[in-house]
Automatic annotation (TrEMBL):
Single Gene Ontology MF annotation: heparin binding
Purpose of the protein: Secretory protein that plays a role in various cellular processes. Acts as a chemorepellent acting on gonadotropin-releasing hormone (GnRH) expressing neurons regulating their migration to the hypothalamus. Also promotes neuron migration, growth and survival as well as neurite outgrowth and is involved in the development of the olfactory system. May also act through the regulation of growth factors activity and downstream signaling. Also regulates extracellular matrix assembly and cell adhesiveness.
Listed name of the protein: Protein NDNF
PANTHER family, alphabetized: NEURON-DERIVED NEUROTROPHIC FACTOR, PROTEIN NDNF
Entry annotated with the keyword ATP-binding: no
Organism: Campylorhamphus procurvoides
The organism's place on the tree of life at top rank: Eukaryota
Family matches, as InterPro entries: FN3_dom, FN3_sf, Ig-like_fold, NDNF, NDNF_C, NDNF_Fn(III)_1, NDNF_N
Cleaved signal peptide residues: 1-26
Every Fibronectin type-III domain range: 179-316, 437-545
Cited Gene3D superfamilies: Immunoglobulins (2.60.40.10)
Main subcellular localisation: secreted
Length: 559
């Protein structure tokens, strides 16, 4: 199919070549060979569209050629060629087959091995190279010509298969496909925090002229800067994921890949691509030219790229990328634990940070006691820097540890849920004087449905083989309060937090056989068809109470 297209355009090659040769002397034998070679190269080329971005796929070590024709003009006619490598560095050059030496040109935005050729056509050869380049930067060549000429672009990738985009225009007065960059295209870092970096950049002239169709997109990653948006998208795809088109970021809904997370906040759209080599975050911020990147990791170097994107054409231009390292996370404040002293901590669930407690042992054997009051808590204990215990707490938990005198223990606690959690902590060398009372196998309160009446209920709970004091409290609640009361109950709070009118009774009991250490109570004088919340508190030798799990019971409506 390609050969048929080439054969179709062959007469144009011959016609242009004939026109160019009309005013030139017959070439010598050596120039004849060069002339034939030039025609052969043009013959095996494709026509490059004018005014349209063309995607070119390159195979490793196989050159690919495109050509375009400029007609003769009475005045110098400008044209521009922009080439955007989307992956590895490439080599590309511009060759011209023309009849006159009246030609001039220059390249812009280059920072690699580029070369400009502007000289008289003294050689008898009809084909000459006017520009070549090697690198992976976006490169734009601006040329001027008043004579009929046939141009060929040759592209070569020597590293691997890749693709590039090429944009040719001979109409420089009808606007720009690519958004314009400001005179100073640098990105400035104006603020650095532990988890944030604030960036600012100068406005693109295109944003000031066409606010509705232009926006800024920011790319954040931990590897390196990208010189074009298509290079960034290629890198993301090569890591095994698909990136939605930039055009779709703010205009159309789309389905995310499993490795992607979308965050929409304050009209800003973030796409987080989670790859094995780290995450790449793409954030489109509209026409704002200042942005604070959130949710970064402390003490980590990040690379930031800003692209100004034309939403109508999907064309983009890249600012000069920058990088910054977030600040180190401050060392957590360490609280000293003292023998036998009980402390209660409220752990911030939103920040999910560790709270640290330190203890220097004055005995070889010590015991840590933890009572979970509310929420979910993770505990991590180290001795002289080595982990000795780590788990999620549930109810009451003891850790008995052996070591040497003056060993240093570090206890770290954090909430594992978004709401705040609370826990009581004690360390003691006195195993024979435990902080908390001896506990039964279960702290659940049981109610007997068959024994319910319109004005009484019967409940039971387990005791221990150690004589202890038990106090019961009750309170009326509404249907819509049940879930909240059960979820928010502070399991460390004692009877001192209850109103005196809620107290039902206090009693002592025990049984040497744990299987028979059960007590029951019938509470009378209740209202029919009413919900009641019952709590039982167990007191040990230290006087610190342990609260059983709350129980909700409803009296019968009709008897």
């Amino acid at each position: 199919l390609k050969m048929s297209r080439l054969e179709f355009y062959l007469p144009l090659h011959i016609l242009v070549a004939a026109c160019l040769c009309h005013s030139i002397k017959a070439p010598t034998t050596s120039s004849q060979q060069s002339f034939k070679t030039g025609l052969f190269n043009f013959y095996h080329s494709l026509i490059l569209a004018d005014g349209k971005e063309t995607t070119v796929h390159l195979l490793k070590d196989i050159p690919k050629r495109y050509y375009f024709v400029l007609e003769e003009s009475r005045v110098l006619s400008p044209f521009t060629i922009t080439v955007t490598p989307c992956d590895v560095p490439i080599e590309w050059s511009i060759l011209v087959h023309k009849a006159s030496a009246s030609f001039s040109g220059k390249q812009t935005q280059g920072d690699h091995d580029t070369q400009e050729v502007s000289k008289s056509q003294k050689s008898p050869s009809m084909v000459s190279t006017i520009f070549n380049y090697k690198g992976n930067s976006v490169e734009t060549y601006i040329g001027m010509s008043s004579h009929a000429a046939l141009y060929m672009l040759e592209f070569l990738s020597t590293e691997r298969d890749t693709h590039i985009t090429v944009y040719l225009t001979t109409d420089t007065t009808s606007g720009h496909l690519y958004p314009e960059l400001p005179m100073d295209p640098r990105i400035d870092v104006v603020g650095i925090g532990h988890t944030t970096v604030t960036l600012t950049w100068k406005h693109s002239p295109s944003v000031l002229q066409h606010q509705e169709s232009i926006q800024y997109c920011l790319l954040v990653n931990e590897k390196h800067n990208y010189k074009s948006l298509c290079a960034a998208e290629t890198a993301i795809r090569s890591s095994g994921m698909k990136l939605p088109p930039t055009l779709a970021l703010s205009l159309f809904p789309y389905l995310l890949e499993p490795q992607q997370v979308m965050i929409l906040s304050n009209s800003e759209l973030s796409i987080i691509n989670k790859a094995s080599s780290g995450e790449v975050r793409q954030i489109c911020v509209g026409t704002k030219n200042t942005y604070t990147v959130p949710a970064l990791s402390p003490s980590t170097q990040y690379y930031f790229d800003v692209f100004v994107v034309n939403l109508l054409t999907n064309a983009s231009a890249a600012y000069t990328g920058t990088f910054a390292r977030t600040l180190e996370e401050p060392a957590p404040k360490v609280m000293e634990l003292k023998d036998g002293k009980v402390i209660q901590l409220v752990l911030d669930g939103k920040k999910q940070k560790f709270y640290s407690l330190q203890y220097q042992a004055r005995h070889k054997k010590i015991q840590f006691a933890f009572q979970l009051c509310r929420g979910q808590v993770q505990v991590h204990i180290t001795k002289n820097g080595k982990t000795v215990a780590s788990e999620n707490l549930s109810g009451l938990r003891y850790f008995s540890l052996k070591g040497k005198l003056l060993d240093t223990y570090l206890v770290q606690l954090r909430s594992t849920e978004e709401s705040n959690s609370s826990v009581k902590v004690q360390v003691s060398p006195h195993f024979h004087k435990p902080l908390f009372p001896l506990l039964p196998e279960s702290l659940k309160i049981k109610s007997f449905s068959k024994l319910r009446t319109c004005n009484s209920v019967t409940i039971a709970w387990l005791g221990t083989q150690e004589e202890s004091k038990y106090c019961m409290y009750k309170r009326r609640i509404e249907e819509d309060q049940v879930w909240r009361e059960l979820q928010s109950a502070d399991r460390c709070s004692g009877p001192e937090s209850r109103h005196k009118s809620e107290k039902v009774l206090c009693k002592y009991f025990y049984h040497l056989n744990p299987q028979r250490a059960v007590t029951t109570e019938t509470i009378k004088g209740l209202d029919a068809g009413t919900l009641y919340l019952f709590d039982v508190y167990l007191f040990g030798p230290s006087g610190i109470p342990v609260r059983y799990h709350s129980k909700v019971v409803k009296t019968r409506k009709k008897c």
